User: What shape does this take?
Amino acid sequence: MSESDKHEKILTRLAQQHIETQSWGYVSTGTRFKVFNTPGTPRDVWEKIDDAALVHRLTGVAPSVALHIPWDQVDDYGRLSDYAKKEGLVIGSISPNLFQDDDYKFGSLTNLDPKIRRKAIDHSIEVVDVMRSVGSTQMSMWLADGTNYPGQADFRRRRHFLREGLQEIYAALDEDMTMVLEYKLFEPAFYHTDIADWGQSLSFCQKLGDRAKVLVDLGHHALGVNIEHIVATLLDENRLGGFDLNGKKYADDDLFVGAINPYELFLIAVELVGGEDDADPRVAETARNVLYKIDQCAMIEDKIPAMLRSVTAMQAAFAKALLVDRAALSAAQEAGDVVTANEVLTEAYETDVRPLLRRLRERQGVVADPLGAYRDSEDRKQRISERVGTPAGW
Ligand code: PSV
Ligand code: MN
Assistant: This one.
């Protein structure tokens, strides 16, 4: 294939990229020590939609926004969905919230009290109704459930409650809806988390049904864990449902994407691109249907610029992964030539893909430099001057 044909193929794939931004990435959040505000922060869900729409207008690849209920609760979800559509967006995945109620101190779906378990199930089923009203087909489920001390609870008993609860919620989904089930190593619980890793999530998904898949949050692993290997394994099991994209230095620090370890992001993209072209149609289909959702929280940074950085970092990671010379990689692997195999990867990683992305944006009719365009924009000035009053948070 000639260089220009190769670039054409890459541009076609990049034009199909779909990165979902999340409503709570536009609001003021922080640490348990302090929440700092930044000027221009949305005050309600409508303004969060405005910001997500702006990110899509600037990048051309972020046409959906994820919601979290009750953070984004409204009286009329039809109106919310129409509003998003008018702004050029659709509502993407929706998350129930099973972690911010006093009743959940000792767990939600794993709570010993059947009334509390019922409440958690009912809330999640209400979220299915919200999904129907806005045309969302993905429930993104994360549980904060866990314990802080050895002896605090019976692991297996909690696991049984959890399975029953998830089964009831899964059964409430329509045929065209899926559940993506997130895992997290620790926090807010420190001794054990009920779904602590990908294997535990996978085992629940296998019990639920084909429409339950694992969600990988890039911040939810111990340091040094090989996330690209997890991605490959889940692809192979046809159970990779999606990502919560962010950057992390230590744990769930929710920094913007690619800020800390862009090489890791690239290696993950290499697995995904490889999966999309896999000879096994089930693997290829799984890879093509992956949800790419951002899950970052701005603690000190301006939210829209941080979101633009994340979206463009994902574009760059994919562009580089698409540049990998797969034939040369296989040949080096076959020959046991580890140095060349690694060189093939770094060759792609070190390529400057900015000219390619500028060409892509030109074709998509968006600005060449989304972040630069936002910095100088009326949109930014207007947000800062008009959005006075209490910013939205959690
Ligand atoms: C939990 O840390 C988590 O990653 C889940 O995805 C929540 O929905 C989200 O963060 C809240 O920011
Ligand atoms: Mn997450």
